[in-house]
Structure formats: structure tokens, C-alpha cells
Amino acid sequence: MTDLASTRVLLVDGSQLITEGLRLSLHRTHCFRVVGIAHTVAEAARSLRGTVVDLVVTDFDVPGAGPLRTVRDTAQYRPSARVVVLSNADSPSWARAALDAGAVAYLLKTSPVAELLPLIAAAVRGAPATIDARVGSLARLPSRMPPPASLGRLSAREFDVLAEMAKGMDNARIAQRLFISNDTVKTHVKAILRKLGARDRAHAVALVLGESSEAFVTT
């Protein structure tokens, strides 16, 4: 669908302030037709069953069930609808989970509206899967190269730590960003190196991103 003015939108978020702000912005900028607003998973499911929608803009973790439930409900009830996930977390594992569940975009709520709206419009027009540029580079691996088979052995938290390592963060900064202790970061780093068969941090990042170790040391 390319006629934005005829796009029927369902907004799903636990915050009324966010849904109302999105409703006004989408209508003013692209003349989207917001046909439903839901603040819980149950409300979203009822809307999906009873209302034809072309686009669902939803929080990653809507109150009432586990993360991404509304994404999966959309696939069940309105398989032709495109889903854009908004989140507060710049977590690569969350972004990949959203796309794996069927979303076409993972965007950050902290982005200026002027940046969000064109990305949402692009999703409606059929743009390839999109991940906010501020989310760790590991989240964009599918568009760059197949990840090493050993990457699948990492836990979700180890993946997040590896993503921060890819950004050049030291242990203290990783601990701060992920709200864990320095000792826990050290434990995760050791596990990552062991599972990837890497000799050091730069080598681990290089193995995953397909670059030379020296490139990550000097950049």
C-alpha cells in the first residue's frame, strides 16, 4: 500500500500520552487514518479481530502479556498488516526478536517525531526491515552477513554485552548501560570469548562483524 491517506492505523501503547501524540502527528503529517487505539494486549487483540488495519504501531512490551504479543496477534488476525515496534531500549536482542516475530521496523521512542514519521511512512510503502540506527550494530547483522553459527549459543544478555563491546564500550560503561555489575560483565565477556573461540574482545567483535581485529582496535 502506498496511499498513506488511506492507511488504517492501530496504535498500541500503555501510555495514553504516547498514543495521543502519535495519533495527532500521524494525521497531521501523512493524513493516516487512526482507526483504533489500545493500551493493553487484550484491547489490541479485540481491535485486530474487529477492525481492518493496514499498520500497527506498538510498544515492544504492551501491558497484559509478554513482549511482542501484539506483533504475533497481528500476524494471526491481520497478516497483511505491517507492524512497527517502538521501544525505549536500544537492545540488539530486542530488535532482532521484534523482526523475527514479524515486525518490519524497530524504532526508538526517544527519536524526534520528525525522524520517526518518515520511517513509519517508509514501512507502509514496503521498505525493507528497518532498525533504528542507534541500536547496536549487531542488530543489523542479517543485512550485512550471516552470523557465525556459534553466535546462536550466546544468551540474550551475552548478546547485549557483545553489542556494547562492538560499540567500543569498556566493562564499566557496559555495566552502567545494562544495569548490571562489573563482575557480571566480566563473567559475560569470558563466556562470549569462550563460546566464540575468540582470543580477546576485539577478536570477538571481528568474528561477528566480519572485519579485521585491527580495525576494531584502531576505530
UniProtKB/TrEMBL annotation:
Listed Pfam families: GerE (PF00196), Response_reg (PF00072)
SUPFAM superfamilies noted in UniProt: C-terminal effector domain of the bipartite response regulators (SSF46894), CheY-like (SSF52172)
Keywords assigned by UniProt, alphabetized: DNA-binding, Phosphoprotein, Transcription, Transcription regulation
4-aspartylphosphate sites (modified residues): D59
Chain ranges of the Response regulatory domain: 8-124
InterPro entries: CheY-like_superfamily, NreC/VraR/RcsB-like_REC, Sig_transdc_resp-reg_C-effctor, Sig_transdc_resp-reg_receiver, Tscrpt_reg_LuxR_C, WalR-like, WH-like_DNA-bd_sf
Domain HTH luxR-type: 147-212
SMART domains: HTH_LUXR (SM00421), REC (SM00448)
Gene3D superfamilies documented for this protein: 3.40.50.2300, Winged helix-like DNA-binding domain superfamily/Winged helix DNA-binding domain (1.10.10.10)
PANTHER family found in the cross-reference section: TRANSCRIPTIONAL REGULATORY PROTEIN NARL-RELATED, TWO-COMPONENT RESPONSE REGULATOR
Name of this protein: Response regulator transcription factor
Taxonomic source organism: Lentzea sokolovensis
Taxonomic placement: Bacteria, Bacillati, Actinomycetota, Actinomycetes, Pseudonocardiales
